[in-house]
Amino acid sequence: MYVATGRGNSVAVIDGEQLTLLTLIPVGQRPWGIALTPDGRKLYTANGLSNDITVVDTSTNKVIATVKVGDGPWGIAI
Q1: What tens digit of pLDDT does each residue of 26-61 get?
Q2: Which of 21, 24, 51, 56 could pair covalently with 10 via S-S, beta carbons 3.0-4.6 A apart?
Q3: What is the CATH architecture of 2-68?
Q4: What is the C-alpha separation between 45 and 25, in angstroms, rounded?
């Protein structure tokens, strides 16, 4: 599972069966909204205070891009 941490400035990757934290992925400031692509290969986060969107490769849990957007993005639509 992927969970936006808000003030934690990261996305938590959680094992859904064991309910344990696998890793934290640092993203922009205050990730409010997240979405997976239909194939599950990329995760997008809307980072409200840094005014950007982070793109994460879910096979490696690494940030592959950061895109500047308008003020206060709060959600993602795919």
Answers
A1: 999 999 999 999 999 999 999 999 999 999 999 999
A2: 24
A3: Beta Barrel (2.40)
A4: 11
Rg (CA), the chain: 12
Give 13's pLDDT tier (boundaries 50, 70, 90): very high
Read off the amino acid at residue 18. Answer: Q
Residue from 71, 4, 61, 51 nearest 32 by CA:
4
> Measured between alpha carbons, how far is 72 from 28 in angstroms, rounded to an integer?
12
Cβ pair 74, 52 in contact under 8 A = no
- pTM of structure: 0.93
**Cα–Cα distance between 77 and 29 in angstroms, integer?**
19
